Amino acid sequence: MKKILLQSGSLLLTLVLAAGFVFAQSAQKVSIPFNFTLGNSHLTAGTYYVVTLSGATRLELRDSGQKLVSVVPVITRLARSGKAATTTRLVFDTIADERFLSEIWITGSDGFLVRATGEKHEHTLVPPEM
Question: Does the reported pTM lie above 0.85?
Answer without folding.
Answer: no
